[in-house]
């Protein structure tokens, strides 16, 4: 199969996290530039992949007819949001796109851009889920990240970040309250940094992600250790030491419950724990490598090839003759690409 077009999205929204019965891969949407129709690809482990990323970037703003703009982007303020200048003038602010509202809840209904762009209705006033992500950092240490996700795209955001364990603890009615609770959650968890709980030391807390570094650490555990995928995080040396994944789940429950209690007005009836690594489809044999490279910027274009090892979040794992490439496909959004898949 060969497809050429503009990379639009990498989506996990099809996953039902309430009833996980199998492994999943994301849907990769590519827009044909002539028809403007979206082709959805399923890039499974074991497939041979060739990918050419061209430096040209096209606008991914969705107009009122639900079609993408696709005008050339000559200058972009952020690689993560490829919008042309005309569409940038339609939205209230790029910071609003990044979850940082630039007005208060009283001003937004009177702001013409907020209303006409649909942002007030489709973005700002959509309820938010609040989550805690836990990544393994070093031996018996973890990295914590808090975040929020619009109900309309749930669970895409929590799964695309590649955390080992996710705890969902609250739901707020809009972006303004959501952002306030998100920042307060991070400040609350900062008190745990440097302390040990449930046998794990909290190394760092953030609301900003360092996903590429975290994914590489997970890959190293997956690829180098002779354990089943379910127990891949078991780094015990001494007999009888608890499995690290179990410790992370216990820690996630404890911290999420404390957050839910602190923000009791918005707490969910029950904390939801998601074991993300039981969702991601990864072929451990295909990612064994002592050489890894993170690919997170494609401004100048790039050519990639290899055998698909699987997915962790939005990161495609690609084995090119023993070099494991950890490719952040979200950073390719808007780029013109040509992709070939073979069995």
List keywords for this structure.
8 helices, 2 domains, 9-stranded mixed beta sheet, alpha+beta, about 30% strand, 6-stranded mixed beta sheet, about 350 residues, 15 strands
SSE layout and pairings?
Blueprint: E1 2-11, E2 27-31, E3 38-41, E4 48-57, H1 85-88, H2 94-97, H3 112-116, H4 119-124, E5 128-136, E6 141-150, H5 156-160, E7 165-172, H6 175-190, E8 196-197, E9 200-206, H7 211-224, H8 244-262, E10 267-274, E11 291-295, E12 302-312, E13 315-320, E14 323-328, E15 335-342
Parallel strand pairs: 6-9, 11-14
Antiparallel strand pairs: 1-2, 1-15, 2-3, 4-12, 4-15, 5-6, 5-7, 7-10, 8-9, 12-13, 13-14
> What is the total domain count?
2
In terms of quaternary structure, the protein is single chain
Rg, Cα atoms, Å: 20 Å
Q: In one word, what is the shape?
A: globular
Task: Give a nutshell description of this structure.
The chain is α+β, with helices and mostly antiparallel strands.
Could you describe the 3D structure shown?
There is one protein chain. 21% of the residues lie in helices and 32% in strands. The protein is α+β, with helices and mostly antiparallel strands and 343 residues long. The chain has 2 domains: 2-69 and 281-342, no CATH class; 128-276, no CATH class. The strands form 2 sheets. A 9-stranded mixed sheet has the order 3-2-1-15-4-12-13-14-11. A 6-stranded mixed sheet has the order 8-9-6-5-7-10, with helices on both faces. Strand 5 and strand 6 (141-150) form a beta hairpin.
